[in-house]
Amino acid sequence: MEIRFLGHAAFELTHEGVTVLIDPFLTGNPKAAVSADELAADAILVTHGHGDHVGDTVAIAKRTGAAVLAIVEVAEEFRNEGLENVHDPNLGGTVVFGWGSAKLVPAWHTSTTPKGTVSTPAGLIVEFGGSTIYHVGDTALFGDLELIGRRHAIDVALIPIGGHYTMDRHDAVEAARMIGARQVIPCHYDTFPPIVADVQAFRADVENSTASEVIVLAPGERHAI
Ligand code: NI
Ligand code: MN
Known about the structure:
The protein has helices at about 50-55, 55-65, 70-80, 145-150, 170-180, 200-210; strands at about 1-5, 10-15, 20, 45, 65-70, 85, 95, 100-105, 120-130, 130-135, 155-160, 185, 215, 220-225. It is of the alpha/beta class.
């Protein structure tokens, strides 16, 4: 399985010809590695309703016919936008696809869409290509990250480190310790001035105080698991 960082909190997962996108915010993303119309997609998974996560979901899904998964209120907004292949779990729910599965887990944040749909933010546990990926979403540090890490053997955790809108790089070290993933890929930093972060300091802090390996990806870079 291959993970490509698309910039901000957007990732592309690929395995055996299947492409899964998470939070595909490309249009208006100053760090976008590609434009939305270049991406293939079999499924698009969305952590919460903020514009920098919903991003180009509707346009990509309309062009590709990809299945879309988001928490029920955001999913209903997608249906109202004309999408038909929409999955609408709530926190704790797992949706099984032909390629794997996606589960919504709690995240401490807010989640009103640009169109005004009030909803609850989430993280995503994705089983795909024999690996378990945990996209933590835009969360603050909270204790149940440890519970989630105990419940699921996480291969790669995608963790925000930019602060201001999410946990900062210091809290993210504790998050990495609690989750206990084999590898950590930092995200949600350096996109906008309020979320500039020292990613190499984060890497050193995690690798000096946890068993996790940190993989720093520049937008566009890939990591094979
Ligand atoms: Ni957000
Ligand atoms: Mn965000």
